[in-house]
Amino acid sequence: MQGGQIAFDEYGQPFIILKDQSTKSRMSGLEAQKSHILAARSVAQCLRSSLGPKGLDKILVSPDGEITVTNDGATILQKMDVDHQIAKLMVQLSKSQDEEIGDGTTGVVVLAGALLEQAEQLLERGIHPIRISDGYEKAARVAIDHLDAIADSFPVENLDREPLIKVALTTLGSKIVNRCGRKFAEMAVDAILSVADLDRKDVSFDLIKIECKTGGALEDSQLVKGVIVDKTMSHSQMPKELKDVKLAI
Questions:
Q1: What is the pLDDT of residue 84?
Q2: Cα(176)–Cα(158) distance, rounded to whole angstroms?
Q3: Phi (first) and psi of residue 70, to 5 degrees
Q4: C-alpha pair distances (Å), 77 with each of 35, 60, 64, 81
Q5: Could you give the CA distance from residue 31 to residue 72 in angstroms, rounded to a whole number?
Q6: Can you tell me the distance from the alpha carbon of 182 to that of 190, in angstroms, rounded to the nearest whole number?
Q7: Which residues pair with 17 in a beta bridge?
Q8: Which residues of the chain have pLDDT under 50?
Q9: Non-local CB neighbours of 165 within 8 Å, separated by 6+ positions
Q10: How many Cβ atoms are within 10 Å of 39's Cβ, its own excluded?
Q11: What residues have CB less than 8 Å from 117, skipping those under 6 apart?
Q12: What is the pLDDT of residues 184-213, one digit of tens each?
């Protein structure tokens, strides 16, 4: 065999010893850092055109032919087949943003890619990665302090829905439901206020359930303040509606 030889282990199982393994070298130093930054920037570049209210949708086709059309960053990265470990960190970053905040999954990846792009220029100038990381942390603290200084606060103790609805509308501008934005914003605010603990300023999202049904239009969506038991009728003569009944779950 050219470039290798066959050997046998103590159990008689054959394996191949490649002779050119000793000639291969691992990347290290600045070359490895640039390779990692390139992988992360490539992921961010895929999402850049989907950012903002005028962001473009992506058409994703799975190996079994399933088609997904979306501009949601978390969904796009979840459907992508990523092998590079640093690129997987970008996917995990978007997933964490989705779980913690529920919005900004595209922006956080694009921002991380832009920060790494600037970091690459600093690395080429000989600045140590730890110094760059410390600088980013200080810049983040300055940015947070500035946001706190210019932020407007409004109380929600009086259950004024309008400011909350306006906040919800800003998160629906780039979603597919934006043509029914007002309706879905009101539904979201009403759902939150129904389960929110205003004294502790805490919301348990486990108390809110989204039930999807095939067919109908976006305008048919509604908020049900109660429990939905998704069961079919076992007989056509069963009553369609009952009031003031006891239900055993």
A1: 80
A2: 32
A3: -160, 160
A4: 20, 10, 18, 8
A5: 33
A6: 12
A7: 5
A8: 1
A9: 182, 185, 186, 189
A10: 19
A11: 37, 41
A12: 888 888 888 888 887 777 788 888 888 888
